Amino acid sequence: MAKVLFLPSNREIEIRGEPSLLELALKNKINLEHSCGGSGSCGTCHVFVTSKAGPLAERSDVEAAMALDRGFSTEERLACQLDPVDQMIVRVPDYTD
Ligand code: FES
User: Fold this and answer.
1) 60 Cβ inside 6 Å of ligand 1
2) 36 ligand 1 Cβ < 6 A
3) Alpha-carbon distances of 72 from 6, 19, 46, 50, rounded to whole Å
4) Which domains are seen in the chain, by residue range?
């Protein structure tokens, strides 16, 4: 079964068809800010993501524009714009967890 590890809570959560990391987190009571409701316009859902399974998916157009504007690092992603994939490790910044 496919799972995502959330840090710093160290909770491993099974993916059950959730369309985004944000939905996976919220459904499992992991506190993640999401001021715009997942449209990709606020940036409050940003997390740091790595994967043991290989490269992450490309950024969506809206995420790519924000990443450029705000100088996101390679690992800094919008949880509302990224599909959860097996073996992802997601570090939630201190101020949202
Ligand atoms: S919830 Fe606003 S950018 Fe993700």
Assistant:
1) no
2) yes
3) 20, 22, 9, 14
4) 3-96 (3.10.20.30)
Distance CA 44, CA 38 (A): 10
- What is the pLDDT tens value at each position of the chain, 97 positions in all? 999 999 999 999 999 999 999 999 999 999 999 999 999 999 999 999 998 888 899 999 999 999 999 999 999 999 999 999 999 999 999 864 4
pLDDT tens sequence across 56-72: 999 999 999 999 999 99
> For residue 88, what are the β-bridge partners?
4, 51
| Tokens, residue 20 | 């985004």
Of ligand 1's listed atoms, the one at least distance from the Cα of 79 is 4
